[in-house]
Amino acid sequence: MRSLEVFIEGLGAARAVEKLVQGGVPVLGARVQKKGVTVRVDGKHRKKVFAILRGSCYNGKKTAPKGVLRLWKLCCKRAGLLAGALVFALCVLFFQGRVLRIEVVGSGAYYRAEALGVLARSGVSFCSPPPAQKARITAEIMSLPRVSFCSVSHAGGVLTVRVEVSDEAVPPVGGCLYAPADGVLETLVVLSGTPCAAVGDSVGKGDLLVENVTPVGEVRLPVTVIAGAAVRCTVDAEYAGDEAHALAQAYLEYGALENIHTQKTGDGWRVTGEVLVQAALNLG
């Protein structure tokens, strides 16, 4: 109920209560003061109260809204301040539910770039909602070498990725992955890093296969390469002695050969075939 207070002054102001009641205005309360009386009435009778007072010897000198009416008038006077406070509160609530900063902590914090790459591929960026599928993110980070624990949490706009490694005393090897020999790239497995060649490409020994960077948005961040490759090479060598000796020498030099062919030469035996030459970086 909206109510207001009317301060009435004049001789015998206390009788104003009776006048108001007789005029059909319910009086909710009255307080006698030194120079008059303060009457509290329902706000909907405001006009009627002052009409009764104008027709008598009493003056309604001062009014003050009470209850809901007073609160409403106060809000109207402070509308700009309240609107600003409301906008601020909504902004706080909005940004509290967004990713404003990403922190990678723990003994495996050196995997920061890899973790940021995983998050970026999952659609997590500045001001985005926190990730809904945390299990997939932690599983991908857990696949990194030596990572034994990973958790993702979000509080106060900060997304925290905790990465722990089981043998932090053994740091990963830095650098890029290069082709180990001339030939055709048969396989390429990249867990971290940027591939610079594709399976089926012809490569030369020392060619860059995986670069130690990863794109995160428009930025290329340095990362630890975790990758492995196999290059199919052609073997063509001649050995002195009999055929068995030539094959044994080829095996010692190149390992297991595929599609082997031998041919007698004037000085011994010619061995041709194919071999897979492996190369890996931080991939056990």
Number of strands: 17
| Spatial sequence of strands, sheet with the most strands | 11-9-15-17-16
List the helices and strands in order. EHEEHEHHEHHEEEEEEEEEEHEE
Unreliable parts: none
Please tally the helical runs, counting DSSP H or I stretches of 4 or more residues: 7
Overall pLDDT level: 78
Using only C-alpha atoms, the radius of gyration works out to 43 Å
Molecular shape:
rod-shaped
Distance between the termini: 77 Å
> By helix and strand content, what is the structural category?
alpha+beta
Q: What characterizes the major β-sheet?
A: 5 strands, antiparallel
Strand content: 35-45%
Explain this structure.
With 284 residues, the protein is an alpha+beta fold. It has helices at 16-22, 46-54, 67-77, 79-96, 112-121, 134-142, 243-254; strands spanning 2-9, 27-33, 36-42, 59-66, 101-105, 147-155, 158-165, 177-178, 183-192, 194-195, 202-203, 208-211, 213-216, 219-222, 226-240, 258-264, 268-281. The strands form 5 sheets. The protein has a 5-stranded antiparallel β-sheet with strand order 11-9-15-17-16. It has a 4-stranded antiparallel β-sheet with strand order 2-3-1-4. It is rod-shaped and about 145 Å long. The model has no long low-confidence stretch (mean pLDDT 78).
List keywords for this structure.
alpha+beta; 4-stranded antiparallel β-sheet; 5-stranded antiparallel β-sheet; single chain; rod-shaped; 284 residues; 41% strand; 7 helices; 27% helix; 17 strands
